[in-house]
Write a structure and sequence with these properties.
The protein is mainly beta. It folds into 3 domains: 148 residues, Cupredoxins -  blue copper proteins (Immunoglobulin-like, Sandwich); 156 residues, Immunoglobulin-like; 130 residues, Cupredoxins -  blue copper proteins (Immunoglobulin-like, Sandwich), CATH 2.60.40.420. 5% of the residues lie in helices and 45% in strands. The protein is built from 4 helices and 34 strands. Strand 3 and strand 4 form a beta hairpin. The longest helix has 7 residues. The relative contact order is 0.15. The site of copper (II) ion has 6 residues, from loops. GO terms for molecular function: copper ion binding; oxidoreductase activity. Belongs to the multicopper oxidase family. Keywords: Capsid protein, Signal, Virion. It holds the Pfam family Cu-oxidase_2.
Length: 484
C-alpha cells in the first residue's frame, strides 16, 4: 500500500497527500475559537515601534486533553499579532532559541532585501537574534510573518512558525467597517497528529521515514486531516447578529479551501469582500464562495444579522469531505446594535494598465530534475531550473511595471516577494471574480496560464518568487529576481 498517506487530489486540486491522525480528535465545533493576542511594543520612539519575539518550543493543548509540542513565536501558534501604522517603522527583534536555524519573512511586506528573510539569511539556533526593520510604507492590509528557511520552510511553518501582521492606515480607519471585537483574523491550516498529540510531518517523524509513500508525500505537499483555525480544531465562535470583518488567511502548507457559509444567508451574498492580499479593494464585491490557496488572504464582511438568533452558521470547505468539509462554526447568539456598514467606495483605485508594462516574461512552474550525478532526482522547478541562490532569472527596474505570464503544470500558488500585482487574465479569458485587487499570491490550477501585471516599487536587491505549497518550495520551486 502507499503507507500512511492517501492521495489528496480530491481536495480541490491541491497537490498533496493526506496524512491521517492517530490521536483522538474532538467533535467539530466543541472548542472555542482563540484569537491571537496583539503584541505590545517594548519601546516606541519618534522613529519606530520596537518589538521583541522569542522563537521557542512550547507544549500547548490543541487537541483537548493532549499536549502538542510546537515551535512558536513567543511559544504560540499562531504567533502574536503585530499591528503597525502605515509608514511607521516597525522593528522586530527575533531571538531564535530553537535547535534549528530560522528565517523570518513578512509576507506581503514591502521590505528592504536585507530584512526580507532571504532563505539563506538565517538566525542561528541557540539564542542568536536578528533585528528586522519594516518601513511598511504601504496601504492597510492583512500581512503575515512566517518562517522561510531554505529547504525547511514546510516543516518549520507546520510546527507553528506563523502569525499575523496587520497594517492599518487613516484611510481605512475613516471607513465605517466592523471594528474591535467584530474584526477577527482567522488563520486556517491543516495538520495531522500522532496518538500522543505530537504533530505528524514526514521529514520530522523518524517512525515514518522510509515508509512507502513518504517521499511522494513530501514532494507533493502535506495535507492533514484536522482543520485548525487560529490553532484550534474546527472551533466555534459565538457572534452577535451583526456585521463582522473576517480576515481569512490560508496558512496551510498545501491545502486549498473553498469557503462557503452553511446555511447561506437568506438574502445577500455570504461574503462581501473588502480586501485582497495587499490591501482594501476600491469597491466591495459579493461572493457566495471563496477559493483560497496557501498564503492568500481575503478580507471579508459577513452580516450575521441576516440570520435569526439561534442559527448555527458553519464555515464550510466545499473542497473537503467528512470532517474536512468543516472549517469552523459561528453561533448567532444575540441581537445587537450595529452601526457598521460597507460603503460602496472603499479606497481610491490606482489606475494601472497593461500599456504601462515595459517587459513581458514567462515563468513555467512545473516538474523537473535537479541535483548532480547519482543524486539527480525529480524536483519542482521554475522554467526547468531548481532554485539556486546565485542565479537571478529576471532583472527588473525599480519603479517599472511588467507583465508576467505564469504557467502551472499542476496546482501551484505562486508568490512574489516585494512586488504586488493585479491579475489580468486566466487562460486567455478574464480573471476570476475573486481575483480583484492587489495581490502577492496567485492561485493557479493545473494547466492554467495567467497574466499578472507586476509593479516593482520599493527597494533594490535580490528577492524571490516561489510556489507557496511549502513542500514544493522546499523542493526547489523558487526563483530569484533582482530589482535594479
Ligand atoms: Cu509566504 Cu516567500 O513566503
Ligand atoms: Cu507548487
Amino acid at each position: 500500500d502507499g503507507g500512511p498517506f492517501e492521495r489528496g487530489a480530491s481536495a480541490g486540486g491541491s497537490t498533496g497527500r493526506l496524512l491521517r491522525s492517530q490521536a483522538h480528535l474532538p467533535a467539530p465545533f466543541t472548542v472555542p475559537l482563540p484569537v491571537p493576542p496583539v503584541l505590545k511594543p517594548v519601546r516606541s520612539d519618534g522613529a519606530a515601534d520596537h518589538y521583541e519575539i522569542t522563537q521557542r518550543a512550547a507544549a500547548v493543548e490543541i487537541l483537548p486533553g493532549l499536549q502538542t509540542e510546537i515551535w512558536g513565536y513567543d511559544g504560540r501558534f499562531p504567533g502574536p499579532t503585530i499591528e503597525s501604522r502605515r509608514g511607521r517603522r516597525t522593528v522586530v527583534t527575533h531571538r531564535n532559541t530553537l535547535a534549528v536555524p530560522t528565517v523570518v519573512h513578512l509576507h506581503g511586506g514591502k521590505t528592504p532585501a536585507e530584512h526580507d528573510g532571504y532563505p539563506t539569511d538565517v538566525i542561528r539556533p541557540g539564542g542568536a537574534a536578528k533585528e528586522y526593520v519594516y518601513p511598511l510604507d504601504q496601504p492597510a492590509a492583512t500581512l503575515w510573518y512566517h518562517d522561510h528557511r531554505m529547504d525547511f520552510t514546510g516543516p518549520q511553518v507546520y510546527r507553528g512558525l506563523a502569525g499575523f501582521h496587520l497594517v492599518r492606515d487613516d484611510e481605512e480607519e475613516a471607513l465605517p467597517l466592523p471594528k474591535g471585537e467584530r474584526e477577527i483574523p482567522l488563520l486556517i491550516g491543516d495538520r495531522a497528529f500522532a496518538a500522543d498529540g505530537s504533530l505528524r510531518y514526514p521529514a520530522l517523524d523518524p517512525a515514518l521515514r522510509d515508509r512507502p509513500g513518504v517521499e511522494e508525500a513530501y514532494r507533493d505537499g502535506v495535507l492533514g486531516d484536522v482543520i485548525l483555525v487560529n490553532g484550534a480544531p474546527w472551533p466555534r465562535m459565538a457572534v452577535s447578529a451583526a456585521r463582522y470583518r473576517l480576515r481569512f488567511l490560508n496558512g496551510s502548507n498545501a491545502r486549498r479551501y473553498r469557503l462557503a457559509l452553511d446555511p447561506p444567508p437568506p438574502s445577500g451574498p455570504a461574503f462581501v469582500q473588502i480586501g485582497s492580499d495587499a490591501g482594501l479593494l476600491p469597491a466591495p464585491a459579493g461572493h457566495a464562495r471563496i477559493d483560497i490557496a496557501p498564503a492568500e488572504r481575503f478580507d471579508v464582511v459577513v452580516d450575521f444579522s441576516a440570520y435569526p438568533v439561534g442559527t448555527k452558521v458553519r464555515l464550510a470547505n466545499e473542497f473537503g469531505e467528512g470532517n474536512l468539509s468543516h472549517v469552523m462554526r459561528f453561533d448567532v447568539v444575540r441581537k445587537a446594535a450595529d452601526d457598521s456598514r460597507v460603503p460602496s467606495r472603499l479606497v481610491a483605485a490606482e489606475p494601472v494598465s497593461r500599456r504601462d508594462a515595459v517587459a513581458n516574461r514567462k515563468f513555467l512552474f512545473g516538474r523537473g530534475v535537479g541535483g548532480h550525478g547519482e543524486h539527480r532526482q525529480a524536483m519542482w522547478t521554475v522554467n526547468g531550473k531548481p532554485f539556486d541562490t546565485r542565479r537571478a532569472d529576471a532583472r527588473v527596474r525599480l519603479g517599472t511595471t511588467e507583465v508576467w505570464r505564469i504557467i502551472a503544470d499542476v496546482h501551484h500558488p505562486v508568490h512574489l516577494h516585494l512586488a504586488h500585482f493585479q491579475i489580468l487574465s486566466r487562460n486567455g479569458r478574464g480573471p476570476r471574480a475573486t481575483d480583484r485587487g492587489w495581490k502577492d499570491t496567485i492561485d493557479l490550477g493545473g494547466s492554467e496560464v495567467a497574466e499578472i501585471l507586476v509593479r516593482f516599487t520599493g527597494y533594490r536587491g535580490r528577492y524571490v518568487m516561489h510556489c507557496h505549497n511549502l513542500e514544493h518550495e522546499d523542493m526547489m520551486m523558487m526563483s530569484n529576481f533582482d530589482v535594479v
